[in-house]
Specification:
10 helices, seven-stranded parallel β-sheet, globular, binds NADP nicotinamide-adenine-dinucleotide phosphate
Length: about 300
């Protein structure tokens, strides 16, 4: 297959690229930075470099400024939105001028799509609660879905917190553990829907191949945990001396608005449609995921 990736240089994108190349695909990556082409993998700086006659089998859209990268202010919130919606609109414009529209678009979203929902178990059809991240995901998905009118199969990837070393959230979450403090955030009762990065890659490869499925897919493990449950599981991999919750006001002081949106509240999401389609997780529970991650990096 010929596959175009946005965000192909990121934490998820590099792992997806490796898997695509290992499976014998031709990969093109859109990046704002210069990179040296490799066998079967070329980098482009703008979508104008894709000619209208190019035949792409699939596009995987992962680009987006990090939500946890910086303290949110009005300018950074605009960048968070524009990096996602703007890139997706550019893809749509490219699709519109191509002689052969790509057959498949896998476009990222996040479990933030559902908003904050307490203890309710959420599947793809669950109702949403409004908020900044919720509106961001909803608008991002709406742009991606426009590709359906061009005949493209669209799968929306409602990603949970992706776990692995070498980037992503785990190194931040494990920071206090590495200095002997097992910590959780706020009350610790908020839900955290997580997935091992290898299962993200496998789920994307599964959705690429399964031409009979489309629409929204929760890309999360079947066993979300609370913040306290996550701390307990992580604690088995560290020698800690103190166990403590970081109070919500301290979190708000430290990271501002992001604390309320991403850290102090959460979603209890399960991968209903992925499992109904027959996908099997390599790491269905947090213990096996963390054991694999820490075994591979010790
Ligand atoms: N990792 C998670 O736990 C998680 C959870 C839920 C949703 N997601 C979503 O999944 C996608 C990929 O996540 P990731 O963890 O791989 O992210 P990442 O490591 O931060 O990579 C993001 C990618 O987006 C591109 N990018 C960054 N800022 C940009 C900007 N201002 N304009 C255009 N492109 C920009 C970068 O490409 P260049 O620098 O090469 O241009 C980079 O490859 C993101 O959209 C994220 O929201 C991730």
């Amino acid at each position: 297959m010929r596959v175009l990736l946005t965000g192909g240089t990121g934490f998820i994108g590099t792992a997806v690229t490796q898997a695509l190349l290992a499976a014998g695909n031709e990969v093109t990556i859109l990046s704002r930075h210069g990179h040296t082409d490799q066998p079967h993998c070329r980098y482009i700086g703008t979508l104008d470099q894709i000619s209208r006659r190019t035949r792409l089998d699939a596009v995987i859209n992962l680009a987006g400024a990090s939500l946890a990268g910086r303290r949110w202010n009005a300018a950074y919130k605009r960048e968070i939105v524009e990096s996602r919606l703007g890139t997706t609109r550019q893809l749509l414009a490219m699709f519109g001028r191509m002689e052969h529209c790509p057959a498949t678009l896998l476009s990222a979203s996040a479990v933030g799509y559902y908003g904050h929902q307490g203890d309710d178990v959420l599947v793809e059809s669950s109702p949403v609660e409004p908020g900044f991240a919720q509106a961001l995901c909803s608008d991002w998905e709406a742009v991606a879905l426009q590709a359906r009118s061009l005949g493209t199969r669209v799968c929306l990837l409602r990603l949970g917190v992706v776990l692995d070393t070498g980037g992503g959230a785990l190194s931040e979450m494990a920071r206090s553990f590495s200095v002997g403090i097992a910590s959780w955030l706020g009350t610790g009762h908020q839900w955290l829907s997580w997935i091992h990065r290898r299962d993200v890659v496998r789920a994307l490869m599964f959705l690429l191949e399964r031409e009979d499925v489309q629409g929204a897919f929760n890309i999360t493990s079947p066993s979300p945990v609370t913040s306290r449950g996550f701390a307990a599981a992580l604690n088995r991999h560290y020698r800690t001396f103190i166990q403590a919750g970081v109070p919500a006001p301290v979190m708000r002081l430290l990271v501002g608005e992001m604390a309320g949106e991403l850290l102090l509240q959460g979603q209890r999401v399960i991968p209903g449609r992925l499992q109904a389609a027959g996908f099997e997780f390599s790491y269905p529970d947090l213990e096996s995921a963390l054991a694999a991650i820490y075994a591979a990096h010790t």
